[in-house]
Design a protein that fits this description.
With 297 residues, the protein is of the alpha/beta class. The chain is built from 13 helices and twelve strands. The protein has a six-stranded parallel beta sheet with strand order 8-7-9-10-11-12, with helices on both faces. The protein has a four-stranded antiparallel beta sheet with strand order 2-1-4-3. It has a two-stranded antiparallel ribbon with strand order 5-6. Strand 5 and strand 6 form a beta hairpin. Helix 3 packs parallel to helix 4, helix 9 packs across helix 11 and helix 10 packs across helix 11. The protein is elongated and about 60 Å long. The termini are far apart.
Length: 297
């Protein structure tokens, strides 16, 4: 029978070939050049291998296979590649540290805004994209829709706070597979990532409870539609709309926001036009459905 030959040349490069020795105890052959320098070390061990070109191809394939697979505690499992997008570096660092507790999850890219998240998704093709909802350039909801369109194989999970649960319907409508709370149990984050990577959907328990409550009284769809309309407003216009919804007059709004009354009138007129409504009452209803009034009270 032929043994396995493992060689190390003088320039540090290794080589593998079959040896013409019979099976038996492993031996180590050393050869020196005329100066006495060791130029090759060859270990032979029992066993049968294919020689020459086929043996080298087999060894290369084996190395490539090992590089693609994560071996954990004697078991073999595929590593879950994750993209993390949040405009706050400290949040990204915290989420990444939590995910690092699972050796089968690897954060392969980080983005500071929605547009960068889409670009990095195309570059790295992760299994899961964790997106914050509120980000510059392109918000998380728009990024989720774009990722779902250009990289449908990447599952999207939204990261949010409990006060943003009115975004749930919109996020799921944009193709998100999960909805997690930043304030939730860290184990939920790992569970959610693993679930969506496996093709399932996942909602944080508190979010799931909220979804059930909203669906029960039919407010979720109306709230999501109202939020879509108010998202087109500027921050100052949303501030004014929230106070309109609370029943304040133009003078009271001016006092609250430290503006002149004429400026408030201009804001109100612009808000009615952009929302496509005829009067303050209709605007107030949208403010309530969008959750702006509750956030101000």
């Amino acid at each position: 029978m032929r043994g396995l030959g493992l060689g190390l040349s003088g320039d540090g490069r290794g080589w593998l070939r079959g040896q013409g020795r019979r099976c038996g105890r492993p031996t180590l052959d050393r050869k020196r050049n005329p100066t006495g320098r060791l130029v090759r070390a060859r270990a032979t061990s029992p066993g049968t291998v294919r020689s020459g070109h086929r043996s080298r191809i087999a060894s290369r394939r084996k190395l490539a296979h090992i590089a693609a697979i994560s071996i954990r505690a004697g078991s073999v499992g595929l590593v879950i590649r994750v993209l993390l997008a949040d405009d706050e570096a400290m949040i990204r660092a915290g989420v990444k540290a939590i995910l690092a507790a699972d050796p089968e999850i690897d954060v392969v890219a980080e983005a500071g805004d929605g547009r960068e998240a889409v670009d990095l998704t195309l570059a790295h093709r992760p299994q899961v994209a964790l997106l914050d909802i509120r980000m510059p350039r392109l918000d998380g909801l728009a990024a989720a829709a774009e990722i779902h369109r250009v990289a449908p194989e990447t599952a999207v999970v939204m990261l949010t706070t409990f006060g943003e649960d009115d975004y749930i319907a919109r996020a799921l409508g944009e193709g998100a597979s999960g909805f997690l709370l930043k304030s939730g149990d860290p184990r939920e984050l790992i569970t959610g990532v693993r679930a969506v990577a496996g093709g399932a959907a996942y909602l944080s328990p508190r979010v799931a409870h909220r979804v059930i409550s909203e669906l029960r009284d039919g407010r979720m769809t109306r709230g999501a539609a109202a939020r879509t309309r108010t998202d087109a407003l500027t921050d100052r216009e949303r501030d004014v709309l929230a106070l309109v919804g609370a029943g304040l007059s133009n003078a009271e709004i001016a006092k609250r926001l430290f503006l002149v009354e004429g400026t408030v009138k201009s804001y109100v007129s612009a808000i009615l036009t952009r929302l496509g409504v005829r009067n303050r009452v209709q605007a107030a209803i949208i403010a309530y459905e969008a959750g702006l009034v509750a956030s101000e009270q």
